[in-house]
From TrEMBL:
Major place of residence: endoplasmic reticulum
Keyword Cell membrane set for record: no
Subcellular location: Endoplasmic reticulum membrane; Microsome membrane
PROSITE patterns xrefs: CYTOCHROME_P450
Cofactor(s) annotated in UniProt: heme
InterPro entries: Cyt_P450, Cyt_P450_CS, Cyt_P450_E_grp-I, Cyt_P450_sf, Cytochrome_P450_Monoox
Bilayer disposition of the protein: Peripheral membrane protein
Organism of provenance: Harpegnathos saltator
UniProt name for this protein: Cytochrome P450 4C1
Endoplasmic reticulum found in the keyword field: yes
Source superkingdom: Eukaryota
Protein task: May be involved in the metabolism of insect hormones and in the breakdown of synthetic insecticides.
Keywords associated with the record: Endoplasmic reticulum, Heme, Iron, Membrane, Metal-binding, Microsome, Monooxygenase, Oxidoreductase
Amino acid sequence: MVIIILLTCLFLMIMYHCVVYYGRSGRLINQIPGCIHLPIPGKGLRICWYSPGAKWHKRRKILTPAFHFSILKEFVKTLIEEGNRAVKSFNPAEESIIEDVMLFTSHHMLNAICETSMGISLNDSDQSQQYRQTIHHMGKLVVNRFFKPWLFIDTIFNLTSQSTTQSKYLNILHSFTEKVNQIRNTFRSVEINNIGIIFFFVFVDGHDTVATSLCFSLLLLAEHKDIQDRVRNEINEVMQENNGKLTMNALQNLPYLERCLKESLRLYPSVTFISRLCTTDLKLQSYIIPKDTTMHLFIYCLHHDPNFWPDPEVFDPDRFLPENIQKRHPYSYVPFSAGLRNCIGQRFAMLELKAMIASLVYNFYLEPVDYLKDVSFKLDIVLRTSRPIRMKVIPIKRE
């Protein structure tokens, strides 16, 4: 009886705390995880994804020039170099098995995003390896706290071992951020805390999500040999036209590969849902959505809705032929969100995916070891499988 009373009191305290101090979901997000003065991740989620109108416009304006076509053109060189490094990581004389495709793609996407966004190269030094591990561990901490509302309360969270672990990881991340601040002067006009916040945003939005997309795209191509062969033929053609090299122009002339990537993002969207706060009363047909309501759109369910997608579980890149796109509702496909707050880096993400896949498919045949139909998914910020998935790469012998 005493235990029940204590648990009830604890529950009521948590509910009171949430209602009084964190009545709206935006305020809860403000506390995920850690003290608000910590630039990573603290307010990072709110500033980059949940900022109110004026602040969001200001920060969007700061970030937009970084994704201008001329900048992306320079980024492509780095992306292609990373694709070449991925190719060289395998033995060119014999087939290899990637034991964890997600880990493989995450490794190379972290390299790419670090070098393109901050001009920092992650080599194989002990410090770089420590940083890689910290990124992954910090992500797990964020997810764990995100789905346990009682840990939103700092008093409770600070009593757990996770608090000590978080402090350790944050110190590593902060030291890296300070190193970036010293080397680059790109963000001189931005307050110091926001540099760290935007830095965290770039890594979560530009690293984990693209790594997930790349993982599923490779696995789908491995499982569908006919589609993989067609992609390879297209890549071979543009390589011949560009003297055996990948370029920005070459990546822009891969329409079938682009359709494959779009279909992969339909089947396995990196971010499975998005949320929006309704700032005014909104009428949808006969329904009224009150002001301050948090609305959730489940992208995964939308992308598998048979009303929009016949045979939704089938991998069919031709769904994205222009004539087929015109027949669908424009918002039936939103892997990068939509509207004013769509993903600012979607063009960059597609270039990342194309550069990496073109390099790998040009040099290797991909074969499945594990199949997607046999795996389950786990709760996370991005779509993840519950266990590692393996894939075989077989070198293509060229004269």
